[in-house]
Amino acid sequence: MKLNTIYSEITTRFEEVCENPSFEAKELIKHICSLNETEFLLGRNNEISVDVTDKILSLTEKRLIGIPLQYIIGEWDFMGRIFKVGEGVLIPRPETEILCQYVVDMLKGKLSPCVYDLCSGSGCIAISIKLDTPDADVYAVEKSKDAYFYLDTNNKSLCSGSAVTLINGDIFNVDEFKTLPKADVIVSNPPYINSDEISGLQKEVQHEPVMALDGGSDGLDFYRLIITEWKCLLKDDGIFAFECGENQADAISDILKINGFDSLVIKDYNDIDRIVIGRR
Ligand SMILES: C[S@@+](CC[C@H](N)C(=O)[O-])C[C@H]1O[C@@H](n2cnc3c(N)ncnc32)[C@H](O)[C@@H]1O
After folding, report:
1. Is the pTM of this model over 0.85?
2. How far is ligand 1, taken at its centre, from the CA of residue 225, in Å?
3. Cα of 190 to ligand 1 centre, how many Å?
4. CA-to-CA distance for 151 and 161, rounded, in angstroms?
5. CATH numeric code, 87-279
């Protein structure tokens, strides 16, 4: 079968389940055929073998039952680097790149800054900050054993030489972290979905671990904990940098204010308040 034929066929089948069927069909084919974007575009008239066709079609079936493409292909791009992902870890999202880039930019010119990434998941934030700020001491804390596996794998494969310091721990046990050096930045994209909204999320998101999503009854448990209990681990001129859900920025700014911090809110690509920065 020609590559172009199978591409059209899968795009049509994905129309039932995907917001962007042609993109997902292309990414699936590129992955199985080990093609980059240019090779895919130039190779659309090439014949592909029966074995490869069968493999593409069997993975297509997985996507059609709602398994996210990222879990099927086992990796995803974040800030231009490929992170391993799979069941048990949150898939890195494009809006998280805004948070990460803000931290990288504000660290420019600081000597040996110290950064904690709380609720680190795949490590996309911690590892990107470390790679873009090699002088920084970066600590990543993650509770889930499954997510920690990906954090460790990505840290080893992407940070050769000097890596992020990983801690498989629970950020609610703050006392266990009090021996860490004080931080210039505490960054976090914590679980922030209201507990009772999780069952209504789209099928793909429900494949992601509940531990990565559930932010308590109002979705704000982790922000309250981090701001009130972790502020003692922040340097006097240190900052909090959070990603948050739609309509949460004002409530987080209020929690920051009560705890002596001014806030700055940054919008995402869809004009939604997505990032909250707290500064004393
Ligand atoms: C929304 S995900 C974010 C993952 C990653 N930072 C990202 O942006 O892709 C939240 C992460 O917090 C972890 N987590 C949940 N409760 C935790 C806790 N009490 N202590 C540490 N990590 C926790 C989850 O396992 C999950 O990996």
Report:
1. yes
2. 13
3. 5
4. 16
5. 3.40.50.150
